[in-house]
Amino acid sequence: MAGTLDLDACAREPIHIPGSIQPHGHLLGMEADSLRLVCASAEAGAVLNRPPGEAFGIPVDQLIAARATASLLRGLRAAPAEPVQLDILHLRGGDEFQAIGHRSGDMVILELEELPANGVGTLEALYPQMREGIRRMQAAHDFEALLAITAQEVRALTGFDRVLIYRFDEQWNGTVIAEDGNDRLPSYRGLRFPASDIPQQARRLYALNRLRLIADARYQPVPILSDRRDPPPLDLSFSVLRSVSPVHLEYMRNMGTPASMSISVMDGDRLWGLISCHHAEPRQVSFAVRTACDLLGQMLSSQMIALERALDADHRIRSKSTQARLLAHMAAAEHFVDGLGEDREDLLALVNADGAAILFDGDCRLIGRTPPQEVVEAIAAELAGQGIKDLFASHQLPVESPAAAGMERTASGLLAISISQLHPSYLLWFRPEIVQTIDWAGDPNKPLDAGGGLSPRNSFEAWKETVRGQSLPWSHGEIEAAGDFRNAIVSIVLRKAEEMAALNEELRRSNGELAAFSYSVSHDLRAPFRHVTSYAELLRSRAADKLNERERHYLDSIIEAASSAGRLVDGLLHFSQLGRTTLARVEVDVGRLVEEVRHLLEPDLQGRDVRWTVHPLPNVNGDPTMLRLVVQNLLSNAIKYTRDRAAPEIEVGCRSTAEAHEFYVRDNGRGFDMAYAGKLFGVFQRLHREEEFEGIGIGLANVRRIVERHGGRVWADGRLDHGATFHFSLPRSAVAESR
Length: 739
What we know:
This is histidine kinase. By secondary structure, this protein is of the alpha+beta class.
């Protein structure tokens, strides 16, 4: 427990207010308006010509005996938030100091840093060398060359033994991706440094202050003194002499680098990486040289952004071309999902994936290397459960998703987009596992000393780690391409939905008019057909003996035709009424309903031995009268079409899903040819002659109308002389028509 607390303390260490500085210079803190001395480093008496305690409260121009103090005072009054070199201060005693000033809260900080004997004091003197370095960096045509040139130029400017450039990953581990050195120090190229080597607050400070120099890691900190009792800590975030954490100093000594300098490389506001300079012995470089290196670091940032934008632009052009082909296929297809899966190569190439899955409207289509369908559906269900309505990306899916556990070979990486704003529908891309061997610069686990305190690593020899369960990460360009494609698909889906809504509205209006017309016509035709039948039967009863056989045949044909027409009109009237009647929804026990209908149909079973199999059936929400008609029609048909079988069999059952109950009635009767399955549920459609099986062809049309009004669907499968199975589904929730 003590070790954990110390690790936490390391992460919270207030490194921006250490209360001390490095000893190769002096720090003076003064009031911003009066420039009166408020605080000073303990050794500052060397430039104040008196002990710091006697100098507090005195204006700085009365304390420093130097030439050209007027320009120094002007610079202090105009000092910015970040440090700038105000002048080279020539003391009357002969010493030379770099005068560096910045603001910290309501104070102005002046740091007098010793000018190295071989140091260049101004940027002007460095300009020719900087210009050549910048020219070389601008001429680099690829990322690797740019980094190599930057490392060379920084080492040429500073004279350090080794210059590393390393980049942070998403977990803030840093990998050395470029290096330049003189072989006095070991090469670290390709090694990875753990995030714990640079804690969060240190990274925050690197992003704030891009330059940091430690001239000698063996230094003893110099405390900062103040004339105030219990003064607030002095913020040294931008101080060039700021003392660093003792843990970091020990880390440097363990690494064998007494001197180091760091230059932050930024990507916008984010710390992208560091240019880290090391020397085998203490080394101090002038502020002008450090500023020149900072300019090279900023140039590196700009060039990286330019190169990345060029790569992104190239990728964007290629992905737009691929996307255009996919959208063309989708637009040409009757159902856009068919078009989406038509060009498999383009669909995978859009984001450089090995496999893909399209889940839409209850359908799942797999393309390329993917997990099994049940796993894909489980992953999609997890995304829906998490409320993913736009885009999701992961390069270590088995760790993040229970549904993907054990799927490393096909689904270590997942890039998913939602392709509908109405239903949980997804397009998923998959990537397989890439087994990586990482070369760490020593064991990445920070050890504790014998007392449980934090101890920096003392070994930086390559330490290998094998990482499994991760895919190649999805690049920014690939994620952007997926997002653009999602927007295009959603636009198509919404446009199709709007078109379907308009068509449905037109169809609803037309159906209403047709239903009204059908009701009116069928109602008006009933009386004439009844009159024809009645008068013909009356004529037959009174004049049959006066008619010859042919005339009686004519009369019988009239009666039969009028009766048949009357039955058709009655059927049409009933069909029309089913579309106009309001649904009276209650909970319906379908099992009990089946038993009641079987009892009702017992007269049709006289003299027959039908083998019934009725499985347990769930309750549903619906109109009991209408659902009774559905069951009665299906069971009546099963009884009718098995009557020429020696051992008739009828089975009733149900398969339940998360969305619906799917009922079926199966028989071993006459069956039908699947080529005509589309006609089964049409009005007055028959697949058998009336001489074989009676009926007018309206029953299954009634079944379809009732089921669709309940929000379900009907379908059938069969084989001629091998029986048929009729299915109808009812939703678990009352999502159907409520009128």
